[in-house]
Design a protein that fits this description.
Layout (H helix, E strand, L loop, with lengths): L21 H12 L4 H10 L7 E5 L5 H7 L4 E5 L3 H10 L22 E4 L14 E10 L7 H10 L3 E12 L7 H12 L3 H4 L8 H8 L3 E9 L2 E3 L2 H9 L5 H6 L2 H11 L10 E3 L2 E8 L2
Parallel strand pairs: 1-2, 1-4, 2-3, 4-5
Antiparallel strand pairs: 5-9, 6-9, 7-8
Length: 294
């Protein structure tokens, strides 16, 4: 399930700015952008040996691709996302209907519907994950791209960690160094267009200890990290624009200017990454941290 060229949310596409269709944005995230992080999902699940014994709590689960991959390993899951449009797409992906191809592999429980929950808010207790609670908590939405983009994680984790078993793994994800992320240069367009709002949500380069700082504030104990190459590949420039807009990283720019202006400047910023056949290719590296619940 590695990505090649796609037509696509890295930052969370919550409430859309005026003039943006949330349903269209969610579908662009699901069909174009979400798959860009498949190598990251695979690396994390392989490292943590995700399987039938895993009880996963996926925070900001988006349209459910990471959950689908965990289901293929036999994991029981709860996915949480505040965006109703994304959750609707996740429900379609994770339907227990065999025709959708989402059954867990042999050896896993036959009724996928009893092993997956999708909710807009955190459950009040760990009943859905078994008496011992969740064994894995993931936040696959990368931080380290916009100023203050880690601030919301504190409240999210404070609600989630009481539902996790002692020693459970918590996975946080961040952008890699700007020099190893071609997309960083494109994301700077958002800062330029967002003036005078840039002080609130301006682009900034990822820092080495971003993830560790979040873990420390949440009372977690770091237990290793890794880096994964996740190139962003698109069939054409239009698909690249749609995919990047679906991340929500350009919302401040759209609010400060207008959608057409953002589309135009984003397309220009993508020009260095267009290949002779019209496809767009941007190498990126993402970092993940594994921490443990004490």
């Amino acid at each position: 399930m590695t990505p090649t060229l796609a037509r696509e949310h890295l930052a969370h596409p919550g409430s859309a700015p005026p003039g943006v269709n949330p349903c269209a944005r969610a579908r662009d995230w699901s069909e174009i952008q979400e798959r860009m992080l498949v190598p990251l999902y695979e690396a994390v699940y392989e490292r943590l040996d995700v399987g039938p014994a895993t009880r996963l709590l996926g925070l900001r689960c988006g349209s459910g691709l990471a959950l689908l991959m965990a289901a293929s390993r036999g994991a029981a899951m709860t996915g949480v996302d505040s965006c109703r449009e994304l959750l609707a797409l996740a429900r379609g992906r994770l339907s227990p209907d065999p025709g959708h191809g989402t059954r867990a592999r042999a050896g896993a429980e036959a009724d996928a519907g009893t092993r997956t929950r999708l909710v807009e808010e955190l459950p009040g207790d760990a009943a859905g994950a078994g008496t011992r609670g969740y064994t894995l908590v993931t936040v696959f939405e990368p931080i380290g791209c916009l100023a203050g983009d880690s601030e919301g994680l504190g409240g999210l984790l404070s609600g989630a960690l009481p539902l996790a078993a002692r020693g459970a793994a918590v996975v946080l994800v961040g952008w890699g160094p700007p020099e190893r992320c071609a997309t960083s240069s494109v994301l700077r367009v958002a800062t330029k267009l967002a003036d005078p709002l840039r002080s609130a949500r301006s682009w900034r380069p990822a820092r080495r200890d971003d993830l560790e700082e979040v873990a420390q504030r949440a009372g977690l104990k770091p237990d290793g990290s890794g880096r994964v190459a996740c190139p962003f590949g698109y069939a054409d420039a239009d698909s690249a624009v749609r995919g990047l807009l679906s991340t929500g990283l350009f919302d401040a720019a759209i609010a400060a200017t207008d959608g057409k202006q953002v589309d135009k400047e984003l397309a220009e910023a993508l020009h260095p990454y267009r290949r002779a056949d019209g496809t767009v290719w941007m190498p990126n590296v993402f970092r993940y941290l594994v921490a443990r619940v004490p």
